[in-house]
Model the fold of this input.
Amino acid sequence: MVKCDRCGKEEDLPFRCNYCGGYFCSEHRLPEFHDCTGLYKQRRSVNIGQTAGERIRDYSYRATGRGVHLRSLFKFSDREIKDLGISLLIISALSLQLMLQYGLLFSYPLIALGSVLIFGAAFLLHEIAHKFAAQRYGYWAEFRINQTGLMITLLSFISPFKLVAPGAVMIASLMYGDDYGKISLAGPLTNIVQAVIYSAISLLSGDPHIRFLGMIGASINSSLALFNLIPFGVFDGLKIMRWNWKVWLATTAVTVILYFYSSV
Done:
């Protein structure tokens, strides 16, 4: 176990800063998030906020390149597939418990099955969006189970509050603050798109069961997006706000509207 040089949090696999040589947790791994005192401090004004073309010419940029071929986006390591599989199994079990709690599991098995699939897709597409966005900008990115998040998710089985955070996409290479914001936005944005689609289904379908599933899909995805848009800690919201507070505000406003619509 190594303690983060910024906050003192113990990490099994800490991130080492290539500029100052310090070791940091996932929240403070980027130079701009731990007030890096190394060479990065001299380059900070150059790196943050540049256009993509300018960054490619910047000698300090270390990512593998942009314009990643589409086929390379669909590569998953054995470890990543295993972690995603375990996370999906836990999330599916949690959603089945919710269906049982609300009396839908045996009364309406097809609706219960649809809800499980919607819950799994909301989580999976959120994480894959982070992964593909990071790879699109030239970074190494893979999903990993987080022990703390996994324990919180498991505790949800016996808690009235349901938190789904078994893991997250880990990103390697020196990153830019605005890239970090755009990559963080990809996950909640995916849930917002799904929530809009499910809301449209609930409005347009004449079948009451499909309308009900549409409302469930809108509720699950808007809740997940809103949860991740919280602007502090390790949540996507903080990274988005640091990049562009107007984008965070607009995204959050849309999510709040979808959330209240699906809760009516």
Remarks:
- Residues 48-263 form one domain.
- The two ends are 47 Å apart (CA to CA).
